[in-house]
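@channel sequence for tomorrow's demo:
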Amino acid sequence: MSALDRQITLREEQLATQGIFAKASVLPLLVEQELLTNVAQERIDPLGQSVAHARRPKPVMIDSIEILDTELKRRCLDLFNQFEESGQSERHDTVVTEATRILEHRLRVLTRSTDAATGADLAARAFAGGTPAIRVSDIQGEQDAVHLLYRGVFGFIRNQVHHKLLSDLAPERVVQILGLIDYLLYVAHTGAPSESTNTP
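structure tokens (generated this afternoon):
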């Protein structure tokens, strides 16, 4: 049943964000259906519960991705749980903002940066060039890819939630982003510091 719920959630998200149905609503269809079957509905459903008011059970998510980084778990999962329990799903972007701030802070500490560098600049300082502050691979193509991965997270995920209020983030996506950031924190910590690191 939970697999079916996940598939329904995935299809809802795709319909809501892609193609000609991006701006469509199923409500008029449901209301029209309700009006057409109003007489039959009274006989079948004396309590007046219709499809338009039916709720699908939420998929279980929190146990699906385990967050290993202690600080990320302590500072983000409590917020996520609080927003879920209180029905404040429009505040999920706050959880992502906090998670990306932790990633940024951790890179600043690992690169020993004392200036005001943020996001993409920290990613470049940490992973780019011939002598990066953090070397995660001896294969230059892999090292370059790690730099682009962090740069992409800052440019695409971090910047969206830092510069706009996003009230439509699905809880499943928030948990996935937390899992990604948890992995990026792990990669940064397992990398070897370069011998000749010149950081401000």
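heads up for whoever presents: Residues 150 and 184 are 8 Å apart (CA to CA).
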